[in-house]
Design a protein that fits this description.
Layout lengths: L11 H5 L5 H16 L8 H4 L68 H25 L20 H6 L5 H6 L38 H29 L8 H12 L36 H31 L1 H31 L35 H11 L29 H6 L3
Function: May play a role in ribosome biogenesis.
Subcellular location: Nucleus, Nucleolus; Nucleus, Nucleoplasm
Pfam family, one: Nop53
Length: 449
């Protein structure tokens, strides 16, 4: 028998322990289930659960197949659309109606799509190959003379890509080949050219800055002057850096002092040029002299001094060991920071690799420098705000259009960059006397020969 728990009856929470609440819980659970699933099927009507499908199956209307005799749509522009009968009839090649479409196979359907997948193209090629084999067998069966070996394949030796053109598609007309050249490039030798394909990889010629016009807006003119000022400040900064690195590092010495220093360096150690002031006279004329003076009984270290030295040495050693142990602990705490540093280093190296690859790819696509000389951009021409005029007659001509075009060609690596040649190197003409020419003594005297 279970013993009843004794509980207090003073407060409300004490009374709740004795109350049975199972019916409330079941009611709430049923309500939650209805909210999740919905009302039960017994309460719903048949119209809500079912619906009658009255729509029948629509029959697909088969479109009539286009006859193969009909002319191609792409050749409609070549046919005459006028109602006037031509004066002279053209000579039309006679074709026997009985022989027409004898060799055509019904399994091969006309190509309707503009683009065909590789799988479809392979299947079409297989059908064509089988058709050619059938035609070859028919020819060999009718003829008595066999020019080709039956056991050899249709592909002749040395043929790879042109095997379809030479052997398989002989029975197809030329119009069909040109029409389907986009779908199957193997059907014709003609190479298709895409309109977006670029012949030259050089950059296009950039338009000049709008602030360079004779009547620019205020914003364009201000932006031009700011760009020129930035370039000029960068050049001044670069020159100042070079002066700081080269000239300011070395001391500036006068010319006389510099010559004196050179003479002193060259005459050092020579007997006639030694300075008396630098000579030290030694009283001891003995040949051998010890660096450390000899110890005596008076100068001898005591036991106390030696103990102090030993104690100090041990203390220093202990201090160094403590420092090493402390550094080991600090390195352990620093491991997480080291991992972060390594991750950052890996990210930076990966970014550099990607940049290098992109640069290499751009180098393969873009143009390369033609000559040895590097291109240097000239400063843009500009006019100050006070010099701007309202009319074209009053403006002063600045710059040169031909020079700008020439520099743009050099910048885009279309022309090689050259250097200015101040003197033309002409070959010296060598003078010599023809042996047939008769020389007189008067001529020799005249030219002092």
């Amino acid at each position: 028998m279970k013993t009843k728990k004794k509980t207090g009856r003073r407060l409300k929470r004490d009374w709740r322990t004795k109350i049975d609440v199972t019916d409330v819980d079941t009611f709430l659970e049923e309500k939650r289930l209805k909210e999740r699933i919905g009302d039960p099927f017994s309460d719903k009507k048949d119209e809500e659960l079912f619906h009658i499908d009255t729509s029948g199956k629509k029959r697909k209307v088969q479109k009539p197949k286009k006859s193969l005799e009909a002319p191609l749509k792409c050749l409609s522009s070549l046919q005459s659309s006028s109602a006037i009968v031509p004066l002279s009839k053209r000579s039309v090649k006679k074709v026997n109606k009985n022989k027409k479409n004898e060799d055509f196979d019904k399994n091969i359907k006309p190509l309707k799509k503009t683009i065909i997948k590789k799988k479809d193209a392979k299947e079409l090629n297989k059908i064509l190959k089988s058709k050619v084999k059938m035609l070859q067998l028919k020819e060999t069966s009718t003829k008595d003379v066999f020019n080709k070996d039956l056991w050899s394949s249709y592909r002749e030796p040395g043929q790879k890509k042109e095997k379809l053109i030479n052997n398989v598609i002989k029975w197809l007309p030329h119009e069909v080949l040109n029409h389907n050249a986009k779908i199957l490039p193997k059907l014709s030798n003609k190479k298709m050219f895409h309109p977006n394909q670029r012949t030259c990889e050089a950059d296009d010629m950039k338009c000049p800055h709008p602030g360079l016009s004779y009547n620019p807006t205020i914003e364009d003119h201000v932006s031009l002057l700011s760009n020129i000022a930035e370039k000029e400040s960068a050049l001044i900064k670069h020159e100042a850096h070079i002066n700081r690195v080269t000239q300011s590092l070395f001391k500036q010495v006068s010319k006389d002092k510099h010559e004196k220093m050179i003479i002193e360096e060259l005459t050092e150690g020579l007997p006639g040029f030694t300075n008396d002031s630098n000579i030290e006279v030694n009283e001891d004329t003995s040949e051998f002299k010890a660096i450390n003076p000899p110890t005596t009984r008076d100068n001898k270290k005591t036991i106390k001094k030696r103990k102090i030295q030993r104690r100090l040495r041990n203390e220093e050693r202990q201090r160094m060991n403590a420092k090493i142990e402390k550094k080991k602990i600090s390195d352990l705490y620093r491991l997480r920071y080291i991992n972060k540093e390594l991750d950052e280093l890996e990210n930076s190296t990966n970014k550099k690799k990607v940049k290098r690859l992109q640069k290499r790819q751009m180098g393969n696509i873009s143009t390369r420098r033609l000559g040895t000389n590097k291109f240097t951009e000239s400063m843009d021409t500009f006019t100050l705000p006070k010099d701007l005029k309202g009319t074209l007659r009053e403006t002063e001509p600045q710059g040169n259009i031909f020079k700008d075009c020439f520099e743009s060609l050099q910048k885009r690596n279309i022309l090689s960059v050259g250097k200015k040649q101040l003197r033309i190197n002409k070959k010296k003409v060598q003078a010599f006397m023809d042996p047939k020419f008769k020389v007189t003594p008067s001529m020799l005297a005249e030219y002092n020969l």
